[in-house]
TrEMBL record:
Organism encoding this protein: Hungatella effluvii
Section covered of the full-length record: 687 to 965 of 965
Official protein name in the record: Periplasmic sensor diguanylate cyclase/phosphodiesterase
Residues annotated as domain EAL: 24-279
Source species taxonomy: Bacteria, Bacillati, Bacillota, Clostridia, Lachnospirales
Amino acid sequence: SAKTAAGGSVVLYDEEMRKKALIEQELEGRLAVAMEQREFEAYYQPKVDMNTRAIVGCEALVRWNHPELGLLMPNSFVPFFEKKGIITDVDLYMFDQVCRTIRTWLDKGLPVVAVSCNFSQLHFEHTDLIKQISEIADRYQIPHHLLEVEITESTIASVSEGVASVLLMQLKQHGFQIAIDDFGSGYSSLGQLQSLRADVLKLDRSFVCAGLQGPREQIVIENLVNMAVELGMEVVCEGMETEAQVNVLREIGCRIAQGYYFYRPMQTDAFERLLTPEA
Ligand code: C2E
Ligand code: MG
Ligand code: MG
Ligand code: MG
């Protein structure tokens, strides 16, 4: 590696560090401009009923149309924005864009499905998320049940149990849907599942893949799915890529999936066409 190699490589390493710092500086400085220029765009990935193939919901995923760097995926800027404490602005901007889009669908009389949005854990530490999203939803007159708040398992694990349960309760009281995202990627115990008052449990792609490796693994995932369903949650399998995976999960009793096998995330127009009933 660069660190252990001879002198020249160390320079290269420093050069890379310097470049990374420059890019980060640039990104940080550009946030306000990027918002103003509407460079952040919501892509939509359908959630599908595996039995009927009907679209039962979707997730909004942020993309950054950077004027010089091109289309940036969340992994290349979300962690940095999170570190800088500015991801909350992007999340609310996305939520606003989603509400504006749902409003146009409602006005066109389309059969709108619930849209889920991702929220960084920073919202639960510093801001009044519920007031903020209620104001945005109400400004566009969007019924709250059409909006789903995705909170990751690790976010829930990182805030105190009291904070998490109050937050979920308040979201519920305001009529929003709640999804626990990336479940099985972190350290949640099964015991926590009963105390999480969520509507939807999204099984992380890595967890689903691992769960399909053999009969013993399958028993674990099967029982988790059953438990979640009995606790009143809808289970969504993330990252379904193959027909084989879909078949196994259907047999286990999972109804809803999100994955490349069905659809990739797509731009608003493409998703709107999927919602539009055939003439
Ligand atoms: P996530 O919330 O778990 O979203 C699912 C990710 O899995 C998306 O990646 C999606 O494109 C990808 N995916 C879906 N189906 C498949 C599949 O079959 N195979 C594979 N390999 N991947 C699949 P994406 O769009 O790159 O987003 C990555 C992560 O960035 C998201 O994971 C979420 O944690 C974060 N993110 C995205 N949008 C936002 C946002 O608006 N705010 C915040 N705070 N985070 C966001
Ligand atoms: Mg998500
Ligand atoms: Mg996820
Ligand atoms: Mg995930």
